[in-house]
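In keeping with the milestone schedule agreed at the kick-off meeting, the structural modelling team has produced records for the first pair of proteins. Each record is given below as a sequence line and a structure-token line. The laboratory manager (R.T.) confirmed that both were archived under the project's standard naming scheme.
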Amino acid sequence: MSDPSLQTTLLLMLAGLTAGWIDAVVGGGGLVQLPALVLGFPHAAPVQILATNKLGSICGTSASSLTYYRRVRPDLRTALPMAGVAFLGSLGGAVLGSHIPKSAFNPLILVVLVAVGAYTLLKPDLGSATQLRFAGHHHVIAATAAGFVIGVYDGALGPGTGSFFVFALVGLLGYAFLQASAKARMANWATNVAALAVFIPQGAVMWRIGLLMGGCNLLGAYLGARTAVARGAGFVRVVFVLVVGGFIIRIGGVVLGAWS
């Protein structure tokens, strides 16, 4: 496959920077990065696009996970089991995804996103402070169950995984948005590793552009994580609503045939 032009490469790098920032704050950077790769490589196989996106994303999630850990100190007793089970779920999802038509998921994803967005808007205090809904091993079980389900989804399809992790941690477990974002980045890092473990042996990664985008994604993620920590849970909530709204418009357009 021929290398993209300098202009296309610069636009892809800008997309990686923007995606890294969004992903670090609340998840959903794929809303920017995946379409950019599709436009930049119109003749690439879908697996190449997905694999290259994961390479770029893992650079960002590595940086944001470290930044959140150093500045927010999330409880690893929840974050690590959730990430571990999400890793296993993503492995299974990546295998499952090759046998399921992804177009069948769009209507279901749209319904879930509308429900998530409406629930967040109708509960203005949601995620403003940590009020855990489970205690002890019940808390870990709920976190790992959510991690597994979202991990399978990420391996099989992927769009909005980080945002779904954040919502599960806020809506199901009762974390504030900032704490949820910190834990979500760790879980999303694990699902990216799992997906690459499937894609790299297939030779699907476009390494040159993936590493260029990854470097920009890393910088964006570092800046995004610092912004989220400095601005707090209220800021993260606003970005979360905007990103979910963007997903609804994008996927809703696909379902209604407004664009492919």
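The second protein of the pair:
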Amino acid sequence: MTVPAPSPLVLASASPRRLDLLRQIGIEPAGIDPADLDETPHRDELPSQHAARLAAEKADAVASRHAGSFVLAADTVVACGRRILPKAETEAQARTCLKLLSGRRHRVYGGVVLVLPDGRRLDRTVQTAVTFKVLSHEETEGYIASGEWLGKAGGYAIQGRAAALIRWIGGSYSNVVGLPLFEVSNMLYGAGFVSSARFISADG
């Protein structure tokens, strides 16, 4: 009896961090196809709603181009209260983000959607709390000079030099990096893409 080949997995993101995180748990996507959407928040949209909506829109856009595949999409939102912080593109934006984050707790929301080959969807929204130390002028300028903030939600990358500035984290670390691995692995297992043993097997 011939066993049908599993459907391929397409990652709906060009983020090298998300790809690295998937590889960390032994998952290598068959393809990478970013959705390239307008990520402007809607009026009065809460940070968790924004993350969930963008993940769903990315998933739908990419799934329409890959019939019969698994499609994994995600979005990461850094928020101070109800305020959604930008993906910093200028030093001024990064300084504004770091000033807001300094000495206070903020939230990182990860929206994740998995579209199955039959069109069904699984979705999760994950929340992680993060507290920065009170940043000195020298620490802020040193981090700005590193350039790590460029294109990062909230103007920092927890997996880089910003780790030295973070006093406490509550919840999923990988969610702050860009993909909540516990939830993603359970979604892939529940959808039948992989067996639970694959995530801990050296053979992949």
